[in-house]
Amino acid sequence: EREGLWARLNDVRGAAPEDYRRLDSRLHLGIAEVAGTPSLVSLVADNRMRLNGLLDEIPLLPRNIAHSDEQHEAIVMAILAGDCEGAAAAMRAHVEGSATLLHGFLD
């Protein structure tokens, strides 16, 4: 699981713009999978489908991708270190940042 999560992080970091959202979704699903709660995986999958529909309406800006990559790394590093609170805080910051980005473009 550790290697798979690390591989998904590396995949999204090196993604071409046309592959970014798909690989970003794979990373988020991988995070849900390692949580060990099967119902979380289906919730994340449903959420990502809806979220990607919204994200497809805004430009994929390099500075946003770089920021997201930094947040992804913080999340994965906390998970791999067994830091549940750090992982939760990093994920919360990531979700809040994504919400702010969407509000900025779609409001």
Into which percentage range does the β-strand content fall?
A: under 5%
- Unreliable segments (pLDDT under 50, ≥5 consecutive)? none
Radius of gyration, rounded? 13 Å
Structural class assignment: mainly alpha
Number of strands: 0
Distance between the termini: 39 Å
Shape: globular
In DSSP terms, counting alpha (H) and pi (I) runs of 4 or more, how many helices?
5
Overall pLDDT confidence: 93
Helix content: over 70%
**Could you give a short account of the major beta sheet?**
none
Give the SSE string. HHHHH
Assembly category: single chain
Report on this model:
With 107 residues, this protein is mainly α. Helix content is 84%, strand content 0%. The chain is built from five helices and no strands. The longest helix has 23 residues, at 84-106. It is globular, with a radius of gyration of 13 Å.
Key phrases:
107 residues; 84% helix
